[in-house]
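Researcher: For the annotation table, I need structure tokens for Peptidase T. Please keep the output clean. Sequence:
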Amino acid sequence: MRAYERLLKYVAFDTTSDEDSPSCPSTPNQLLLAQALADELRGLGVADARVDAYGYVYGSLPATAADSGPALGFIAHMDTSASAPGANIRARIAPCYDGGELVLNKALNIVLSPERYPVLKDYIGQDLVVTDGSTLLGADDKAGIAEIMTAVERIQREALPHGKLCFAFTPDEEIGRGVDHFDVAGFGAQFAYTADGGRLGEIEYENFNAASAVATIRGVSIHPGDAKGKLKNAILIAMEFNAMLPCNEIPAATEGYEGFYHLRWIEGDEEKTILKYIVRDHDEGRFTEKKERLKKIAAYLNDRYGAGTVELELTDSYYNMKSKVEPYPFLIENARKALEAEGVAPAVVPIRGGTDGAMLSFMGLPCPNLCTGGHNYHGRFEFIPVQSMDVMVSVLVRLMEQNSSARDFSS
């Protein structure tokens, strides 16, 4: 079975995660997919495949030779983002893309256009997995699962040599809880890769430092006809709070290593308004500066409007894994070699986000991120080329084979 066929099967599971749910997994369908994946692994000869109480899927293959490299893991996540609908996904193959507009939904006039997404021009003549424009696709990260699973199938079918291989599929990555219950010791790997990236060729081991910020603004409501000197409008103070942040440090105005503040939710009235932000920066110093700016704004507004007007809650989410991965350069070099062997030019790029691997790296499991080939994640225009998925399967197989020799793996 090819990787795209598995992807089409997996996206039938609505695995949207829910940040408001206290359970793990946060949504029940993730557990249904987990059971299906464990069954599939067992069918491929991964005899110890299992689902734990938290919905994590684990499995491993023993080394084929005594003198093998360190145990190597491959990880992807099962949940999809709540940023776009994830139920009733009607994915299809758009064969031999011709470079023009690709109609996703004629009735709703939803079109995947190279004018808006110029990267499409790179895939002329290829087959694209797309949505019908009413949902996301879920290639983030079911493409990663599909590619890992297909690589396992090939390793087993062709009886290829390898060291100990460990596999894990995690819940709730999209809500930042993907490794909350990850059993690093039970997983059994010394090093790992997540397959959770984007464009074919990309290797990532620098991610954002990340924090969340919640600003609660408390006002005083009174009839507007009698409001002079009495009304303290929490909505207007919230607008003032946001206006004091740099207007060019937002996601829509930044790229590469540039960090940002992202206002992702606002709700309230004159008496109480809540702002929810995420704060991101690759550089530790600038990350600290961003958080300090939020504190200074809150202090200024409290001084201006009275103590207790602004309550700021800052919570660090994860940190840049660069310092944890750089001591093991062979992880990046081996990924480069595997891509080059498949005719792909590798590109080491920063992650403008986070991965399970970032947090796992701080838990003692160095874990850079590999591409899956997908584009436009978390939205209705998400797509992934079939051919990119095929290449990534071969890349994963090469990494698994390279692990068959301790000398070759770390040389």
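Researcher: And a one-line annotation?
Model: The CA atoms of residues 2 and 396 lie 14 Å apart.
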